[in-house]
Each structure stands twice: as structure tokens, then as C-alpha cells.
Amino acid sequence: MNPMLPTSQLYRVLNRAPVWSLSLWALLLAACGGGNSGSSFTWLPTTGASTVPAAPGNTTTTNTSGVVVGSYFVNAKVCLDINSNGRCDGDEPSTRSDKQGRFTLAGSGAGIVAEIGTDATELDPLGPSSKPVASPLVLRAPKEAPGIVDFQSTAVVAEMEANGLDFKTAVGKVAISVGVIASKLLGDINTEADPVAKASLKAASDEGLQRIRDALASAASGDDVKTLVTAAALTERYYQTKAPYRPQQDVSTYEAAPAGFSPVYTELVARHGSRGLSSLKYDLAVYNMWKKAQDDGALTPLGEKLGPDVLKIMKANFLLGYGVAGISTPGYGNETQVGIYEHTQLAARMVQRLPAYWKQIGDDAGTAPRQIVTVTSGVDRAVDSGNFFVQSLKTVQPALAPLLAHPPAPAPYPDNGAAVSQPAGTNHFLLYFHKLVKSSDLVTNPADPLYSTYQASLAYQDYKSNDTDLLVKQSGLTLTPSAAAAGRVLLERLFAKSFVDKIASGTYSFANTGSFSFTSDDGKFAPSLSGDGKTSIKSLGDAGSLLYELYVISPAMRSEAGVDFTAYMPVAQAKFFAALNDGSDFYDKGPGMTEKGDITSRMAQILVDDMFNEVDAIARGDRSHAAKLRFAHAEIMMPFAVRMGLKGVDQSVPKAASFGYDSNTWRGDYVSPMAANMQWDVFADAGGKLLVRMLYNEKETDFKAACDSAKAPGTAHYYDYTALKACYGHVASPS
Prior knowledge:
Largest sheet: 8 strands, mixed
Distance between the termini: 82 Å
Mean pLDDT: 90
Oligomer: single chain
Helix content: 25-40%
């Protein structure tokens, strides 16, 4: 008997007759000494289908060769999935992967299934060491690309089957979710030469393989293996505005500028990169709920794991950024390693997109210098994002370093004696307009250009705090029967039903109260914090919503906390609470209720104007700026996208109706994932005519629908600037 699969576990699995196919039973029984010990063959130089001579007198036979990849899986059962049921049936050609994870199957034209049991081993790609597989896995590959069987290939199959996508579209979708170009998605991770692509592929593989392990390990009676694996492999995880950033288009696929036009300017506004939790709220409230369940003896086996995982999240946030170069103040709200990487790579791709332009800017630095203007909201994580971005620019092209410029912050209004001047490169009005305050931002003169932004900010803040319709919409999101049902599904996986019933009845409620302290490994940093009691769990919907908040933050913190919350948040419930999260943002940061007009986006007009003003300068021959880089927050990106009228983003709903995924296209993971960004590239011809191309999250994107007529003839993404600004009603400010 293989010690990695105890008799009790084997008995539990085999007694789920509807769950496991006969072939997968055999896979598990192999842990007790049964099954094929593997087969030997000559490895073909390329993977996929190959034609080999058959025995004399017979026709030619087509074989399928490949490799099972995580590290490399040895002694995995591999088959042609002729009936596409996601498992190896007895009448399907099968074999065992060899000592390098390779296989050859007689036949072709079908997808591949690899059933990896605890009688298999993982071979370290860097050396001869190996380790036994601790828990079963099932991987798949499409018939169009059967040579590499890994998590990425499994995700492609899942997207094709679950969403009805063709092979090319599915590959593109999965590649975007991983963060690599499509041509690199289905290669062998272990031999990938590009270190950036390799890191992205490896991170996605590790996370995805664990999801599949967890899904199979927690299978309930009646579950189907194919369904479980598909759900675990789908790219849509419903992280919404906490989704780690992925560029939405491969730079090599951008439309070329029309003949005679070359780049003369570029500008960007971006959200900060992936961060930890903003403060001690959701984690502490959930921990207090868990602790009471522990005290009551009401934890399920899965629930036992929740408390320690929440503590890992808490500790990581307490210490977040400590010892990390470029993080100014460690603790809650800081960028994680994922976030640092996002802005580092965003800068590198900006240079990659316009290589000749940036080289020319660097070459001219000593004779005709053009400034690279950098502005932030002044909040730590936005400031740090800007610094990581420009440091990457300097690393990619050192000649750009002396061109970086930080303009002075807007001066406080003369009568505001209490105001403190902000550091250079800070602009609250431009990049923190949702929270302008009298103590630092007061503007009383209606003739001041900043007056309208200040007034719009005050109106918005009053709306957010006091508008009855808004408060009813948002507070009611977690109080519906549907929210209670979704919350109950989550909680009954963690706690005894009797405990869950006490939350439902109001007998039990929890809040982020109490104090904690954590110490860094070197003992030199030991912050202590207390919860403010303002984040509460008073209903099953509240509990589910707060668990969702921990679920969505965990991918950004994989380096710091090493916790995966997908086990606590099945996809169906993730989608439900994602819709609630998007609904809340839709009402107070998005287009919201039709009757409220532009209350949520009016304050963003200053940013729209700033984007146009920069291009106006180029139009009048002022080339002093080579680029303008702005770093802000989700609260800026969302109303800005609405104000710009991006298609699919600006659809409000009447007060009498309700936001929902079925009727509205607003999605937080499109409008403002972590490091969300809008970029404008400006091109000029010899006569000075300007064209503008917009990228949203690095995807070529249309301006508002009313401006389609401003597109340059014969192009899909280039807009005549004169016509574009007329469409937006922009009037150039005096030089």
C-alpha cells in the first residue's frame, strides 16, 4: 500500500461510486500496488501527432506524442479522450508517462487526458530529484495541441467546452489571464527561455494545479470529475477590481499607424498595482467569526483551515512592504510583489510598444531634452507605483533618467491658512478628486480653474454619505434571499449548520474588534493594530461578502501570505458576490442611477481635460513633454472611464431597476483591475496633422460611440485629433 494514500482515504473515495469513473478508480487503486508500472518508447523530436510505419501489410498508423507537465509527471496514466468525457475509459488507447513525463499513444484526432494518481511522481526539471504525488490530479489537452498536457492546456479545454469557444479564441483568452502572448501558452514551462513569460506561466500553473487538487479532494457524492476539473481550470475567477493586472492585447498585434505618421507623444493614467488589504477590516471580522465557531466546536474539516489562513493574511498585511526597497511605509494598503511586478512590466511594455520613439527621446536627452512628467495622488501606494514605473523606464533605457520631472502641486488657496503644501509631483485635484477636503484643498474663488472640481468633489462626497437612494441600494445588496442563500452555501462548508443558523437569526454577529501584533522575522518591526468595529457581519450575506473580500485579495499576496482562498469560495458563489461587489461600485463610482445624472463622474472632467490639454500642446508645436505619467486609484479610474464614455461602461440604470450581470456590462475586472490604465499614443505626419490611438488595459479601444466618425479613414483605432476633441466638446486652453 502506498503510504501517500491511507486506507481510510481510499475507502472514502472509492465509495463515491457516481463520482469516480472505473478508470479513475483504477488510477487510485494503483496506489495500492495495482496498475501499469509504465512503458518505454523512443521519444520523438517534436510533440503532437506523428505518422509512423505500421507492420507489413497494414496501413500507416498515426501516433500522438507529448509530455505531462507540472514539473514533469512520471507514471501518469495518459489516454486519447475519444468520447471527450474527461477521463480514461477502458476502451480508449492509453499508456503511462515515462521517466521524463513523456508519452506516445497509438492514434490521433482526440484530446488527451492525464490521470495522475499517488503512484505517480514529480520529476524536478532542474535535476534528478523527484517526489511522490501527494494527491490526485486530472489534466487535459485539446486535440488541436495534444503535445503538452499541463494546467494551461487544461484551461484551454475548459474554456472551449464551458464557453463554446474555438481553439484560437480559447488560447487567446487563457493567455491573457496568464499574462503571456498566445504563442507561448502551450509550450513546456520548464524549457521556456523568456524569464518573464516563464515566471507568469509557472505562477499560473502552480495556482491552477492546486485548484484542481482541491476540487478533486473535496468532491462530494454525485460530482463528475470532468465538471470539477473544468470549473477549477476556467480563467474567470471573479476577482473583479482586485484582479491582478493582465495586459489585454499582445503588443505585436497592434494596428500599424497610417503611412507617413510617426509617434510624437504618449500619456498614461494608471491605478496603483496589486496591494494587500487597505486596513484591518474584513480579515479581523472573519477571524472573530471563525474563533467563535472554534469555541463552539462548530468547525468542519475545511473550516479548521480557515482561521490559520486568515491569520496568515493578517500577518502578511501587518508586515507588508517591510524590508522591500521602494515601499515607504510598511503595513496595510501597500503594494505586494505582484503589484511591483505589474508596474515594472507596464513600463517595459510602453517602451516595447514605441521602441524607436523612446530611443529618439533618449538620444536627444543631451541636446533637445523633453520632459517625462510624473504625477501621483500623493497616497503611498500610488507614489510607490509611480516610482516602480519610472525606475523600470530607467532600467530599460538609462538615457531617460535625466528627463523625469515632477511638477509642483497646486498651491493651496490663499485664504486657507491651515493648508499644507503638497510635495512636488502630487496633485489631489487631478488624481484624488473623490476626497478633496477643506483642510488641504479648499478653493473659494469661482474663477479659479480648480473651483469646479472642488465643488464636484464635495457634491459627490455628500451623495456617497447621505443620498438615501444610494444607501438603500448598497445596504440592500447583502440582505436579499439570494445573498442569504449564497452565504449559507459558503458557511455550511465551514461551520456546523446550527452555528450558521445563529448568524441567520441574528443571535450571532461579529465585527472587526480586538487588537493584534505581529513581528517581522528579524524582530525589528512589530506593529500593533486594533480594529475599529465598523465592519460587521450581521447576516449570511455579510459573511459571504467578507469571505469574498479575502478570496479576491489572496492572489495579489501569494508571495507574502502564500494562501489560496479558492477552497473557501466555489466559482458559483464567487460570481454571485462578485456581482454584489460590482453592484456597489456601479452605484457610487460608476454610471449609477439615471436620475442622479453625472454626480459620480463630474469630478473626473479635470482628468479628461488634462489628457486633451497635453495633446493640445503637441498640436500647437510645444514638444517640451515627451510623456505624462499619472498614478491613481480605482476611485479615479472608474469615474474617469465613465466620463470618457467608454463603450459598455457608461450604461446607467433607472432608480426603479437594479444593476445585474444579465442586463448590464459593467465589470470591475475590466473597468479597474489592479494597475488598470488608459494610454493615448499621439502620431503626427509631416504637415502636423495628429492622430490619437487609445489603449485601455493595453487593448486598442474605441473612444465613445459618438466619436466613431472621427476615426481616420481606413483605420480601426486611429482618430483624427481635431475631430476627436470636437466630439468631446473640448476647448483648448490658452498656452
